[in-house]
# Entry
Amino acid sequence: MSQLKIYNTLSRQKEVFEPILPNHVGLYVCGPTVYSDVHLGNCRTFISFDIIYRYLKYLGYKVRYVRNITDAGHLEGDRDEGDDKFSKKARLEQLEPMEIVQRYTVGFHKVMELFNTLPPTIEPTATGHITEQIRMAQQIIDNGYAYVVDGTVYFDVEKYNKEKPYGILTNRKLEDLLEGTRELGGQDEKRGRLDFALWIKAGPEHLMQWPSPWGMGFPGWHIECSAMSEKYLGKQFDIHGGGMDLAATHHTNEIAQSQACYKTSPVRYWMHTNMLTVNGVRMSKSAGNGFLPEELFSGSHPLLEKAYAPMNVRFFMLQTHYRSTLDFSNEALQAAEKGMKRLWDAYEALKDFEWEAGENSIDAELNDKVNKLVAEFDEHMSDDFNTARVLASMFELVPVINSMKDKTIAISAIAKETLELLQAKFKDYLEDVFGLQAVNEADNTKLQGVMQLLIDIRKEAKSKKDFATSDKIRNQLAALGINLKDEKGGEMSWSVE
Ligand code: AMP
Ligand code: ZN
# Structure
């Protein structure tokens, strides 16, 4: 088996993967901030790491996979002052912050399940690890790298940078980073422009706050990942992942905190996924181009020409390497649908092939070709998880499989072991490593048709002021877990709970 190579953001090159403990991997991935629904961009990152997790397991590693839930301490605009995202939403919706957290955690899990991603082995929450975060902040103060101003604890970036390069992860000098940040205002309590909060003082209006040696407050966003990764994976662990947008600040601060606290670089391999874009613009909540997965599955977003099944979306993501940007479009998704169908049909046929010694002898050239292409699955995947190239090798095998299906080539034109390997590797890769499942296209199209019919009947009923019928349709669908929403201009959209 080829050696696994991983592109390490820290060294900016591919490195041979050597785990700290033989046969074991500690993997930490920054999870969602559960104050709203995850969009498809977030899903790309989580699906990419799901495939990485699955492949590590496939290679025989015992993996401890920690993906946190950020349920406190993430402030608006990733800043150090103001309200946290949960309290803001809670006020808006007149709910408890923990009701917000629960609603979106449940929603996130549901989406992850629809995409057939495996749950992490530990899913710790920030609110469940307040004492660990306080302890870490205290240790950083004791070591001389943080200071307290009126109940808030700041990390002293310039002091730290005198000993360790702060911008090491993204290869940037402190002077350049300083140039890119705003001047300290007269009111600012920070000593340096790049200093960030480990702990934030809470005013009486703050809904979520805890006692600490510095008074009532709540943890900063960065300290939670440092505290939780240390707790479950140790002071140094193998792989830390997240979206590329997290490298410059969140992960840079994680490294600084752990170094300042434990005098060790916390992570051996830093992995970053590239962004999902729409017309070249990064998908994000603030840009307003964030499709929700359920809008995609029901086709109810105005930019969507039709509904797309979760497995086709997953396949769409697999066709691009995780370090390349991936642009969302209807054409690309429809091409992915066709591609997946072609591949899956071949796989279904392949499963039923039985080798029998035929009259023809083995075609050595074809046999070699099949063996070579099958061997490439592991080679490509071990080359920094290149799912796109694995799929390309699989597609090269499709015409061979189809010819065997049509009997234009005899199954016995390849050796029995070659056929068995081909069957086993297709299963391993499509189902176990890529986590794909058959798509029931017919069901999907039928449901679309039925929903459109019900929407038409309801529109008609409404126009005749027949509210009994209109309400009946909406309520009975709701009882089935399908939500109909009245949009502007009399339009209706629907989503499955
Ligand atoms: P958040 O809930 O905002 O903390 O984000 C959760 C994860 O999704 C992080 O790892 C982000 O880097 C990642 N992410 C956010 N936007 C995108 C995007 N457009 N494409 C890929 N990953 C993203
Ligand atoms: Zn994190």
